[in-house]
Amino acid sequence: MGIDSNNIHFQNLPFYETGTIEKNPLGEADIQLTVDLLRKVKPHQVFCAGDFADPHGTHLVCFNAVLNALQRIKADGDEWINDCWLWLYKGAWQEWDIEDIEMAIPMSPAQVLKKRFGVFIHQSQKDCAFPRQ
Hints:
Distance between the termini: 20 Å
Number of domains: 2
Number of helices: 3
Number of strands: 2
Strand order of the largest sheet: 1-2
Radius of gyration: 16 Å
Shape: globular
Mean pLDDT: 85
Strand content: 5-15%
Protein name: Glucosamine-6-phosphate deaminase
Oligomer: single chain
Largest sheet: 2 strands, parallel
Low-confidence stretches: none
Helix content: 25-40%
């Protein structure tokens, strides 16, 4: 995708690392690791999956980790958080109702295919969320 590898962060949060489909509940370590990463990056925008009915149940847990982390950072008075936006996106499992969309990003047909391929190569997405072409 052209993103410098120094700007890609994989958290491998403790709640996720069970080795099974069922994950652990969100814990303090998950939230603190998320706080640490957000403070390191100081993003202007944070994107979380907003389709909380995902088959694996991880989207809501990840969202709660990010939301808790952002709330702690704000409560601690970090200045950068005042210019940080949390955006939710939806994808293969659930789409936004048209009246709930606050921002849309137009994509060319080539970009859509590239996105589909990117989703498909993610191991957990191989249950044909998108038809193969």
